[in-house]
Amino acid sequence: MNIPILMYHQIEEPPPRGTTMRALIVAPKSFARQMALLRMLGYKGLSMGQLLPYLRGEKRGKVVGITFDDGYQNNLIHALPVLLKQGFSATCYGVSAAIGGTNSWDVPSGIISKPLMTAPEWQSWHASGMEIGSHTRNHVDLRACTDAQALDEIRSSRTELEQQLGCEVQHFCYPYGWFGPQHIQMAKEAGYLTATTTARGRAVPGDDLYSLKRIKVARATTLPMFAAKILSRYEDKRG
Questions:
Q1: CA-to-CA distance for 223 and 139, rounded, in angstroms?
Q2: Which of 21, 150, 211, 225 sits at 20 to 30 Å (Cα–Cα) from 27?
Q3: Which CATH number does 5-238 carry?
């Protein structure tokens, strides 16, 4: 049975047309309709930790993984209430050296700077039943790092998040979706249980847990298209 893992970034009213990477900002109303549709279709939205038994083939059911990259403050403001309303959980991948900061890595590309969650906000996210994952220390391109640098980014981010936020961090996401075989091994050695990518497609029980495909949900993803991504081979064919 195919298992969709959804990839979101920001949940907020999209900026004006022409804004760089506007596509990655999903309107709160759109997100709410998507989550309501999942529940109507009989799906349960789960964090990566809760999804793991299904990915391993130990459980079966209509489940969807829900993930957010980077740790934007608007995830807490706009996404959390919707998730709680539907009885869903989700994983948000944080950049450990940027807690309480902004998405500074995006500035050179002309992307608007937005606030990331502070430590108390991350703790509120977790206390609400949501999960915290790691997205490296500095949101780096791992392929451009030496092996020593990459290992530090992968391993230290987990340690820093656990120390700062007081919770266990067991799931990882490669920044930009860029990684090599050595980074898969590093994620394993760092103690993570899963690692997600930006490769398109639905997961299948038995897939490599350290190179999991996801389904990007964008600003322009209509509700019928969202349903197609979940229910059909739409994304699988494009992976």
A1: 31
A2: 211
A3: 3.20.20.370
**How many CB atoms lie under 10 A from the CB of residue 235?**
20
Q: How many residues does the chain have?
A: 239
Terminal alpha carbon distance of the chain? 17
Query: What's the pTM?
Result: 0.97
CA distance linking residue 201 with residue 199, whole number of Å: 7
- Give per-residue pLDDT as tens, 165-192: 999 999 999 999 999 999 999 999 999 9
Contact 30, 180 (CB under 8 A): no
Secondary structure (3-state) at 134: strand
Q: Which amino acid is at 37?
A: L
Tell me the two tokens of residue 145: 């790092």
- Cα separation, 65 vs 91, in Å, equals 8
Distance from C-alpha of 29 to C-alpha of 39, rounded to nearest angstrom = 16
State the pLDDT confidence band at 18, using cuts at 50, 70 and 90: confident
